[in-house]
Amino acid sequence: MSVICRKLCSSILSEHFGQIVQRVAEDLFKHDARPLELICCTTHLPLTKIKEALCVLIKHGFVVYGQTERGLEYSLIHQNILLILRYPKYMFFVKTMCGDESEMILEEVLMSGYITASEVITKTYKKIEQSPSGLQPSVPVLKEKFELLVKNQFLTRSLCTDTVEEKTNEKPDFTLPDFNLAAVIKKIEGDNNSDPGDSKIYWKVNFDRLIQDLRDQIIVSAISRRLDENAGELMRQLLFLMYLRTASWAHTSNPIPLTEIKEAVKKINYPLLAHHLDQYLHLIEEDSSQFLKRVGESGGHFCVNMKEAFEQLAWATLENIVTERFGSKAARIFRLVRDKKYIEQEQIQQLAMIPAKEAKHLTYTLLQENYLQIQEIKKSGVSAAPIKTFFLFHIDLNLVVYMEVQHCYQALYNIMQRREYEISSNKRMIDKQLRMQTLTTNLKEHGATEEQLAEIADLMTPSEKQQLEKVQNTIKKLGITELQIDDTLFLLTMYLRYH
Amino acid sequence: METEAGTSKEQNAINTDTNPFEIIEQKILALAQARPKGITDKDLIIEMPELPVKERAQIINKLLSQGHFDLFKQSGSLLYRLKDPSKAKIAKGADNEEKIVYSIIEEAGNKGIWIRDIRFKSNLMPTQLSKILKSLEIKKFIKAVKSVAASKKKVYMLYNLEPDTSVTGGAWYQDQDFEAEFVDVLNQQCYRFLEKKREQMNSCRGGPIMARNVTFASSKEVWKFISDLGISKVKLSVEDLEMILNTLVYDGKVERTLSSDGSILYRAIEPLLDSPGLIKSTCGVCPVRKHCYDIGDVTPTKCQYITEWLE
Ligand code: SF4
């Protein structure tokens, strides 16, 4: 793991779980797997604090433990920490798929790591009660929504247990929860003794499912962009059909028969697509993006090629980055080298039709920044002639992708640093506003008059208000940028996963 | 000559001042030129039946001795093949080194050859070589041409050759200068044309494949559009325009396909992705990112790029 990735993970943990968790994680970063006593030794933190921190880390799936001859050892899974960056995206996705209440349930599960069904419903119920969203809290509805999340495999049974030995079933388990609805309602009403009967049956977020959904979204929107909405919808149907017959993360789908595609398209309301299905299949298949392949003798089967798709998408991403960083002429050279695989400088300027000097400059800039590689080839000519040396430019795609992943880490880290700085340097004012908010809500609950409320609002001077607004905008803008950078990171990570 | 009054009279009628012998010579040479593989005595008999054997032999001998012909034997009969006229000339009055240098240059064809390479191949001393080159140049056997590949490099080739486009750069060069602006304008105009074609797609009602097919344009169509625009001072060929269209392919804006009848088709395409999120952030395109750390002169908290972007 690179230094910058470590720093990024560390700062994510500090933001969401505080300093102690961060320090414990840092220690595990540095030393890989190690037992509790050693963590205590290097961090100089009290044992109870470390235990608490480890507990949080384990609950969220950032730390795993295993019995070794040196005792119980803890180790970090840093990829899972990076998933936190994507929480808002998961929530948004679930919201569009299953509605507002489901999003709230998911948020609760994300915040807890793992949790029982009755507990999460209780919590969400209370949250809805307090929120100004206008939603009506209802336990049966929440239960339904919870089940919907499980059916969609967004939630899965957590196999986290209190003791080490109990780890058995590794397969994701989507058996629906069974608990006493009435007991939950009683509990919400304040009866702490009622038992919903699902203690120790924990649920967690099934990230694998959500990652695949975000992945599919990229594919669908790429096809919609390249061709049109109908083609995008067809791609979505193809992905559904892929799930039915293919292991997740397989490079290509098993062949999908045309008849099934026809059936699927009939069921959705896309008349134009249904009418021209053959043509749309042909267009996607013929497109240079190569997402789809026709297979079999009769040509009546299709395969979705995920691996190829993400290679094309990674290229598109890199080409865009090169354009933005070095200009369109540099991107022309980059694409040219991609197309020719190996090419000499002279040919570059000729085919790219860029003046020799400029072409050379751009090529060497790209070389220096590692977007291009150079290979020396010696060719001995006729006996008397000296050995001729050719310098061929080429692109090492994996290397460039890896480099851009690091670039994303750094950009994320930097923007996060800046956001934290903006928050801390305006802390006094942000705190003041928070205090005022609580005060206002409290007073409202106690039936305060308009006048009283206005009085509190006046505690902040106009200039303060203005400043506050500016800070809030800044923080929001930085937050959005982080999500955007993560989009790129996600796409490139998907590429690496397949290659 | 006197013996063949009939022929000479005939020839004289056309061109009275010319020696009739020479006219026959010219005829034979013209015939040999038309048949670069060589001519046989039989060919001569068929082409010039009235020419007596003895005279024919005389003329052929003369031409051979003057170095116009190479003599070959092919399936029992003699074959006269025309030598390169300039080479024929150099055969006279040139020393061996000149001949070697000449043949090296000749071998290079219309792509030419650099002096350094001539030196390696001929093993001559630099001073001697430049003297020879000068002499050949003065005699107009060879010429030096500036190559566009490298501004200060000259290449040598035979005097009568038209330099290859890789040397002159073709339509895109004016006096060895690459006309970048001209290329850019053409690049934009070609794209404009293809984009217009793509727009027609929206009004196409014949199904998605038909809609895509209206976006295709052959290189010839684009060539015609550009020619009609009249923005080019020089006459461009279809191949010239294909070069431009290919730059659009490398710009990622256009796709190239081969049609079933073998012609090359181009069409404007939409990229697969919007610009990636990374480069929407300042750190994605930052020129000093490599120097940006938690402490020091360039840090995220002090960063002016972010400050400006936030404004
Ligand atoms: S924080 Fe500023 S200086 Fe540092 S990489 Fe980002 S844009 Fe560049």
From TrEMBL, chain A:
<comment type="subunit">
    <text>Component of the RNA polymerase III (Pol III) complex consisting of 17 subunits.</text>
</comment>
<dbReference type="Pfam" id="PF20912">
    <property type="entry name" value="RPC3_helical"/>
</dbReference>
<comment type="similarity">
    <text>Belongs to the eukaryotic RPC3/POLR3C RNA polymerase subunit family.</text>
</comment>
<dbReference type="GO" id="GO:0003697">
    <property type="term" value="F:single-stranded DNA binding"/>
</dbReference>
<keyword id="KW-0240">DNA-directed RNA polymerase</keyword>
<feature type="domain" description="DNA-directed RNA polymerase III subunit RPC3 winged-helix">
    <location>
        <begin position="318"/>
        <end position="395"/>
    </location>
</feature>
<keyword id="KW-0804">Transcription</keyword>
<dbReference type="Pfam" id="PF08221">
    <property type="entry name" value="HTH_9"/>
</dbReference>
<dbReference type="GO" id="GO:0006351">
    <property type="term" value="P:DNA-templated transcription"/>
</dbReference>
<dbReference type="InterPro" id="IPR036388">
    <property type="entry name" value="WH-like_DNA-bd_sf"/>
</dbReference>
<comment type="function">
    <text>DNA-dependent RNA polymerase catalyzes the transcription of DNA into RNA using the four ribonucleoside triphosphates as substrates. Specific core component of RNA polymerase III which synthesizes small RNAs, such as 5S rRNA and tRNAs.</text>
</comment>
<dbReference type="GO" id="GO:0005666">
    <property type="term" value="C:RNA polymerase III complex"/>
</dbReference>
<dbReference type="Pfam" id="PF22536">
    <property type="entry name" value="WHD_POLR3C"/>
</dbReference>
<dbReference type="Pfam" id="PF05645">
    <property type="entry name" value="RNA_pol_Rpc82"/>
</dbReference>
<dbReference type="InterPro" id="IPR013197">
    <property type="entry name" value="RNA_pol_III_RPC82-rel_HTH"/>
</dbReference>
<feature type="domain" description="RNA polymerase III subunit RPC82-related helix-turn-helix">
    <location>
        <begin position="7"/>
        <end position="67"/>
    </location>
</feature>
<dbReference type="InterPro" id="IPR008806">
    <property type="entry name" value="RNA_pol_III_Rpc82_C"/>
</dbReference>
<feature type="domain" description="RNA polymerase III Rpc82 C -terminal">
    <location>
        <begin position="187"/>
        <end position="313"/>
    </location>
</feature>
<dbReference type="InterPro" id="IPR039748">
    <property type="entry name" value="RPC3"/>
</dbReference>
<protein>
    <recommendedName>
        <fullName>DNA-directed RNA polymerase III subunit RPC3</fullName>
    </recommendedName>
</protein>
<dbReference type="InterPro" id="IPR055207">
    <property type="entry name" value="POLR3C_WHD"/>
</dbReference>
<keyword id="KW-0539">Nucleus</keyword>
UniProtKB/TrEMBL annotation, chain B:
<dbReference type="GO" id="GO:0006383">
    <property type="term" value="P:transcription by RNA polymerase III"/>
</dbReference>
<keyword id="KW-0240">DNA-directed RNA polymerase</keyword>
<dbReference type="InterPro" id="IPR007832">
    <property type="entry name" value="RNA_pol_Rpc34"/>
</dbReference>
<comment type="function">
    <text>DNA-dependent RNA polymerase catalyzes the transcription of DNA into RNA using the four ribonucleoside triphosphates as substrates. Specific peripheric component of RNA polymerase III which synthesizes small RNAs, such as 5S rRNA and tRNAs.</text>
</comment>
<dbReference type="GO" id="GO:0005654">
    <property type="term" value="C:nucleoplasm"/>
</dbReference>
<dbReference type="InterPro" id="IPR036388">
    <property type="entry name" value="WH-like_DNA-bd_sf"/>
</dbReference>
<dbReference type="InterPro" id="IPR016049">
    <property type="entry name" value="RNA_pol_Rpc34-like"/>
</dbReference>
<dbReference type="GO" id="GO:0005737">
    <property type="term" value="C:cytoplasm"/>
</dbReference>
<keyword id="KW-0804">Transcription</keyword>
<dbReference type="GO" id="GO:0005666">
    <property type="term" value="C:RNA polymerase III complex"/>
</dbReference>
<keyword id="KW-0539">Nucleus</keyword>
<comment type="similarity">
    <text>Belongs to the eukaryotic RPC34/RPC39 RNA polymerase subunit family.</text>
</comment>
<dbReference type="Pfam" id="PF05158">
    <property type="entry name" value="RNA_pol_Rpc34"/>
</dbReference>
<dbReference type="InterPro" id="IPR036390">
    <property type="entry name" value="WH_DNA-bd_sf"/>
</dbReference>
<protein>
    <recommendedName>
        <fullName>DNA-directed RNA polymerase III subunit RPC6</fullName>
    </recommendedName>
</protein>
